Write the structure tokens for this entry.
Amino acid sequence: MHLTSSSGSITPRSRHLLRQTALAVGCAALFALLAGLVTSGWGPLARFDRGWVDHLHSYARDRTAWTASVQTLSDIGGTITVRTVLGIAAVWLWLIGARVLAVWAVAQTLIGWGALWVLKLSFDRRRPAFPDPVSHAGGPAYPSGHAMASAITFAALVGLCWSQLRRGGRIAACAAAASAVLSIGWTRTALGVHWPSDVLGGWLAAGVVLGGVTVAVELWRPGALARDIRRVNWRTRPRVQRIVVSPARPAPGDPAFDEAPDRPDGAVGRGPA
């Protein structure tokens, strides 16, 4: 999910709105289909959920060190952690003057949190139960909060960085974000605290929030997200360019120091400004 075109120019508003609307509507339709299968106890899905959870639980029960490492990864990618990361990004955006973009980031976090609990309480699905559990989690199972929060956070962070990255950087950022989201979702099933369909439901719910919040902000302040992206670029790119391409300063006594032209501000011996 990105907020500008691949060339760095502003995406036409109608195209941007259509893309985000398609994301929200498409994910909502798939979420509703999955929720219907979950609540109806559809046999193939129930067998798939139970088979995966039973297999992973058996593996985790007999390998204490492995289970501890999975639990650590799950804790690192917990809902509080990832929401805090996006909150820090929102504070930084606010401080540099990208206020609408900061509101967008905060809205992703807060609306995602609120939607999660509305959905959990609405479906009230039981978590997997074992006589010898390797981990514990409270609250209803569907959808997974870890899966939903991590998908929202990492997709939002990629969107914030998109216009500052070249093609290789974008591929790397998307791959890293996808790996993190998949890993966090997988840990919840591996620890036996969520069904696979809970994790899939969390990812689909995240798509609804990401697209829906973006459309709402675009309708509220047309073009403001793109303007704030340009502000972020302006605040970050010049510093990088000065560090990378600035010529080395000649030392006094070096012939280059005496031959270097004066700067417009009156300084001498440092080359062109």
